[in-house]
Amino acid sequence: MKVLFYRYNSICEPDFIDAFAKAGLTVSEVTVEMERKDIPGEERVRILLEAIAAEKPLFVFSIDFFPFISLVCKRVGIIYAALSVDCPVAEIYSPEIKNPCNRVFLFDRDQYDSLKDICPGRVFYMPLGAATERLSKIPFPDTYEYGVSFIGSLYNEKDRYEYLKKQGRIEKKALEHMEELISAQLPERGLDIIENGLSKEDIDALKDADPSFYRSDDALTDMDRYVAVNNYLGNHLTSLDRIRVLNRLGETLPVGSVHLFTRSDTSDISENVVIHGGVSTLTEMPVVFRSSVINLNLTSRTIKKGLPQRIWDILGSGSFCVTDGDRNFDDMLENGVHLKTFSSYDELPDICACYLDKADEAENIALNGFDKVSVSHTVLLRALAILKMILSEKLG
Predict the structure, then answer these.
(1) In the chain, at which end, N or C, are there fewer CB atoms within 10 A of the end residue's CB?
(2) How far apart are CA 250 and CA 334, in angstroms?
(3) Strand partners, 378
């Protein structure tokens, strides 16, 4: 049996290629998206059709949902399975999400809930997972090199709202209203205040200010509002969150104990935070996890009811994770047993200070977390679940 894997160089792709191979599938790859970023749509379709004809796979698979792949699979009568690893993803609200060939797996329950009644039997909830076999091969260091570490983007490079504001391109009245909403939302988790308070005039002001504003006339939701809330104000709030949290930890914890690994602009980061460059996700990142007493997960505001990949990567490497606690854990992980959660940023410095003094306790929680994900939440188990669903349908 074969799976045709359509790739675009997502960091999650290699682990799923390995998982499908371990599940007994022969994995063929379409890599044109990795080789050429400006490939015309017609050529994408042609290449995919030729690959399907040549390989005759059981199904086509991709990380994240591509509407054009769904159209091709619908045309030739083959199942298209896609696993969403990002949020927001505008493409899941395209009309193609309703195609009968789709089996789309969403890790954020809010995403799933928004589509389950529109696309019954087409979309499914599936948490992400850990590549424990790969991660477990990385040796543990003899001693900790870092106290508290955060690996990831500061989101300022994704902050189109801040860019437009600095350029003076947002109409004044709308800008003032959005700033009021941001100030009210910042101390609270989520995006509820902004979602409920954002006016049509605010959204129109963002559209007028940015020619690159994502537009879709046939989406299954109010795409203008979705993009304004998530891609603009959600990303802006995530950037504010991460910068202020790291700065507060740097100013509160012992100097030199807070470490940031990022490729983002760090000009707004406190001098008390030790700044490192970015690290390779598959090779260097797990080493940093293993070398840190505490590994922070600061979830993007746009992920409302899901566990981001960072949590699974930390636990899968046998490392201690401290994360915001208003996630959708679904009884998968238990606070204080598999990881440690915080309910507000105000309590985070005390939690970090506690576990910096109790590294042995952090190690025990980390081992429990690794044992849990190794048994119940691996990438291989997710791949097997997808394959089982497809085979059960094929076999009737």
Answers:
(1) C
(2) 28
(3) 130
Q: Which two tokens stand for residue 368?
A: 């429990």
8 Å CB contact between 174 and 202 = yes
CA distance 255 to 215: 46
> What is d(CA 341, CA 113) in angstroms, rounded to the nearest whole number?
25
pLDDT in tens, 307-338: 999 999 999 999 999 999 866 677 899 999 99
Domains and CATH numbers, the chain: 2-129+378-395 (3.40.50.2000), 130-152+278-377 (3.40.50.2000)
DSSP 144-174: -SEEEEEES--SGGG-HHHHHHHTT-S-HHH
pTM of the model: 0.96
State the DSSP H helix or E strand holding residue 15, giving kind and residue range, or none if neither.
Answer: helix 13-22
Q: How long a stretch of residues is the chain?
A: 396
Model confidence pLDDT, tens digit, residues 166-214: 999 999 999 999 999 999 999 998 999 999 999 999 999 999 999 999 9
CB neighbourhood size of 362 (10 A): 23
Cα torsion at 175, 181, 184, 185 (round to 10°)? -120
Indicate the burial class of 278 (C-beta count within 10 angstroms; 0-12, 13-18, 19 or more): middle
Separation between Cα atoms, residue 149 and residue 186, nearest integer Å: 23
Rounded distance between C-alpha atoms, residue 331 and residue 18, angstroms: 27
CA dihedral 310, 316, 320, 326 (to 10 degrees): 50
